[in-house]
Amino acid sequence: MLSLILYLLPLMALFLGSFSLTAEKEEGSWQLLSTYPLGTLPFLVGKFTGLSMVLLTIVSFGYGLMGIVAVILGISFELSTYLLFLAFSCGLVLLFLSAALFIGSLSRNRWQALTISVMIWFFLVIGWPAILISVLSLLPYLWIKPLLTLLTMLNPAELVRLFVVIKLGGGSILGPEYFQWVSWIQQPWGSLVFFLVFIAWIVCSIACVYWIWERRRSLG
User: Fold this and answer.
1) Domain-by-domain residue ranges, the chain?
2) Do 102 and 18 touch, CB atoms closer than 8 A?
3) 63-122: per-residue pLDDT in tens?
4) Among residues 47, 67, 46, 49, which one has the least CA distance to residue 57?
5) Can you give the pTM of this predicted structure?
6) Separation of alpha carbons 22 and 19, rounded Å
């Protein structure tokens, strides 16, 4: 279930978010909006909020429908696990949507956004374990844990996946390199720290998008 969500939702969020911004450029909507007293930040926050509502509604509908079908068929499961999967899906959507806005701000058209989105998705979701192992195997042992922490923070898919796996009680399968992650996430304040990191990731992404759009707006 985790793998299926991890493959589908990030790709959907990347496509929808990046296409939304590139469409503004291709169709000339942004040039029109620039003539109005509309700031770049409200425009980007509005884009992020609107797209988030659409994607979260789709995810919530899917989980709600699945829950109703499970109840009708008499399939029992823990409510906490069900809500954790829902939170995992919503977290992936929001993090990758913020990354999609960054891709859309750099892309000139939809084809370029499509290419970059697929590359980012493949790198962060499909190729990440193999790339991580090959890179860390070349480094001294003392560098592995701090670099692993940094790289995990930079990968939204891995960040949310680790949190959910540990919350589900599967932290023991991650290995000794992730011992510190298991320790702080299982603490009472672990969820709060993760939420702060989550918000910081989104804010930093939107701040980068804002800087790119303001620069292009000032340069005409």
Assistant:
1) 2-219
2) no
3) 888 878 877 877 766 777 778 888 888 888 999 999 999 998 888 888 888 999 999 999
4) 49
5) 0.85
6) 5
